[in-house]
Design brief:
Layout lengths: L1 E3 L59 E2 L2 E2 L7 E2 L5 E3 L3 E3 L2 E11 L3 E10 L4 E9 L4 E9 L8 E4 L7 E7 L5 E2 L4 E5 L4 E10 L5 E12 L6 E2 L1 E5 L5 E2 L2 E10 L4 E9 L4 E10 L2 E9 L8 E8 L4 E10 L5 E2 L10 E7 L12
Parallel strand pairs: 14-17
Antiparallel strand pairs: 1-5, 2-4, 3-8, 6-7, 7-16, 8-11, 8-15, 9-13, 9-14, 9-16, 10-12, 10-15, 18-27, 19-26, 20-25, 21-24, 21-27, 22-23, 22-25
């Protein structure tokens, strides 16, 4: 089974500074999954998404898009023609390719690329190996039980995440394994989405191939299913200087937290996570943060009950001349942890924040 990332690319969500050609032809399906390849399914976007098309390419070449401009003047980036890649191709040492996308980003800009793929057969994932070349700020992986649209690669926005979170990675992320007997399932017919955030402050275009490799086991080896829940505040107001801010997530069901991934941006320097339980406060994680090495940290199992609250405190060194606020740009800030939990609670893709 191969998935083909062909010639046409649609721009679904315009980032700030985006421009397009309203007269461009609708893009064709660019990726196939399953026997019929999703033929006849319409292109999909959220109701509040701005619909636009990339500029048509001259002389039959590749289309281009204007991403979010960080440092004018900005150039347009090509939307590369994608190669055919084999689903679960053996990549060595037990790793199999889940999905990968080729991308380009112009100097002084940032943007998002989304790849959707319908799973042709059920697999159970026990390990993740992010592929994050220079320019990959982070990538998230979400699952929808049924396809929301055609399998394709598109320029997109931060809100494209699927119905539930599978995994995430950032700059410098390393391979990680789930606890023995625990796996994350990919059901046949479900659609997986990779949301890729690209960032380029350099003077030359960046090009790369980003994605995820996995290890799998038979269903008979799985005792419990896991999920990732993103937890943290959705508003921040960070003054100049050093300060600490935070938020939390109250669990609605019992679960075991076995790993977490801190996520801030360039001014984040430290993160502390605790659990407020009926038995008192439990320290989950307390460590410095490095934007260039966004790691998933294994922690001693923390048994949480419904109503327990996980609190996240983020410390920033704001050496700019202005306050910083919550935002998806790498020039703004965030304060999140990706909580890796089992059994799967079914939180969905939206952050747990209260």
């Amino acid at each position: 089974m191969k998935f083909s990332l062909g010639s046409g690319l649609a721009l679904l969500v315009c980032l700030a500074g985006c421009a397009g050609d309203d007269d461009a032809e609708p893009s064709p399906r660019v990726m196939t999954g399953g026997e019929d390849g999703g033929a006849g399914r319409p292109s999909h976007s959220s109701p509040d998404a701005a619909i636009a098309q990339p500029d048509a390419a001259p002389s039959g070449g590749e289309p281009t898009v204007m991403d979010h401009c960080l440092r004018p003047p900005c150039e347009r980036a090509r939307l590369p023609r994608q190669p055919e890649l084999e689903f679960l191709e053996d990549m060595g040492d037990g790793w199999q390719r889940l999905m990968e996308v080729d991308w380009e980003l112009a100097p002084g800009s940032e943007g998002y690329r989304c790849m959707t793929f319908t799973i042709p057969r059920e697999v159970h994932v026990i390990a993740f190996n992010p592929r994050s070349p220079l320019g990959t700020h982070h990538s998230t992986y979400g699952i929808s039980a049924t396809p929301a649209g055609p399998d394709q690669v598109v320029a997109c926005g931060v809100g494209n995440t699927g119905e539930r979170r599978l995994q995430g990675s950032g700059v410098g992320s390393q391979p990680n394994e789930l606890p023995e007997g625990v796996a994350m399932p990919l059901r046949e017919g479900a659609q997986i989405m990779m949301n890729l955030h690209l960032f380029n402050l350099g003077d030359e275009p960046l090009r790369g191939r980003s994605g995820m490799w996995i290890k799998t086991v038979p269903a008979s080896a799985v005792e419990m299913e896991a999920e990732v829940v993103l937890a943290g505040p959705l508003m921040l107001d960070i003054p100049v200087g050093r300060s600490t801010h935070g938020g939390g997530c109250t669990l609605r069901s019992a679960a075991t937290l076995y790993a977490l991934a801190p996520h801030m941006h360039q001014k984040g320097v430290h993160l502390r996570a605790t659990a407020a339980t009926s038995g008192g406060e439990i320290l989950i994680y307390d460590g410095d943060y490095d934007f260039e090495h966004q790691l998933l940290h294994d922690v001693d199992d923390v048994e949480l009950k419904a109503g327990d609250r996980v609190n996240i405190e983020c410390t920033y060194e704001n050496d700019t001349d202005r306050s910083l606020h919550w935002g998806d740009s790498s020039l703004d800030e965030m304060c999140f942890i990706g909580m890796n939990l089992y059994p799967a609670i079914g939180y969905g893709s939206f952050p747990c924040s209260n």
